[in-house]
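Final report, section 2: Outcomes. Of the targets proposed, rRNA cytosine-C5-methyltransferase is the one most frequently requested by collaborating groups, and we therefore present its record in full.
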Amino acid sequence: MADAARTAALEVLRAVRSADAYTNLALPAALKRHGLSGRDAAFATELASGTVRRQGLYDAVLADCVDRPLAKVQARVLDALRLGTHQLLAMRVPSHAAISTTVSLVRSDVGPGAAGFANAVLRRVCEHDLDGWVDRVAPDAGDDLVGHLSVAHAHPRWVVEELSRALGSRQDEIGALLVADNEAPGVTLVARPGRSTRDELPGEPTAWSPYGVHLESGDPGAVPAVRDGRAGVQDEGSQLVALVLAAAPLDGPDARWLDLCAGPGGKAALLAALAGSRGAGLVANERQPHRAELVRRALAGSPGVLGIVTSDGTAPPWEPSSFDRVLVDAPCTGLGALRRRPEARWRRQRADLHDLVPLQRALLSSALDSVRPGGVVVYATCSPVLAETSEVVTSVLASRTDAELGDAAALLPGVPDCAGPLPGTFQLWPHRHQTDAMFGALVRRLPA
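The predicted structure is given below as tokens.
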């Protein structure tokens, strides 16, 4: 019989493949369903997340080990083979244990014939270690560097190209960035000012956010402040985006803040706490009703909430010039958060930019209409792709005479090496800052 941890991981893989589930959302339910905690939960988490991250490389390995196209391999069997390959090539699991448990999964789920097939394939996988397989299945780096990096680090070719372009003059860092994308992210907590303090959160203080800590181990939901909603789980990069908006100098009153794309509510909760501590308030807007409900839960109990609105951010119901500060955390490809959203690299296509970029421009324009003259807007994405960052900002500013680019990077004086693609913008990176690759631009609405 296969153990519960491997069974849970396999269930997550199947949910990701067949139901378009998100790994980080499917995992907690699977762990709970199988009663996993501690080391067993950690093992299942690495098994599922690591397999999804490196799926492209593992498929290249498996294609070399089977006697038919992978498309002809039954999907349920292929899920298990990927799981076994990850154990053999990237985890400290003895070969006999990785093979026997995977074969047991296939036997109980599909049948003895499929189990025999899985056993034969995985024994072929054992013939090389990870580096040996990369040498065998990846293009030669001297002939096709992008192709080699794509296979070796399990990123689609177009993603490698876009990330290289975003690095600009630092393209020699692309290998380090791809490695960082494949590392399991740590858990970062944020204390919400006025409701909790960093001192009551367990863990090492974050380097640049005064409200964050890196949780070394354990369930964040077991931390009292997190359980009570006075603190939350939030990457340090996302914390810094909220802090830039809160720190930006403006002219005139500072009473009404807006999070234009608030779901699922992490940045909104921090902004509401910051606003409330100054006697200001936040309106959180979210277009999708189910995400608006997540925002409502995240903001429950926060004193700095003026309202939660469910509306299209490109055509909002409020009057123009209604707010003093506005955050646009725009929908994007998410290529800056591949550590924690491993399936995104396999779902996103370059063609997605054709729909996302016009939406991003429309949201930034709407934010500038929503902020009063003298107020400020922060445009942010969890993607470093230039089409979604500098090109959106440049395009919108070129279409308006009432806005100018401010210096967001100056509001992060302690963060090294974070200059963005436009002067004054900032770009964080997993390999440099151990955060998601958050981009931010500060835009000022000019007085009439």
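The chain has 19 helices and twelve strands.
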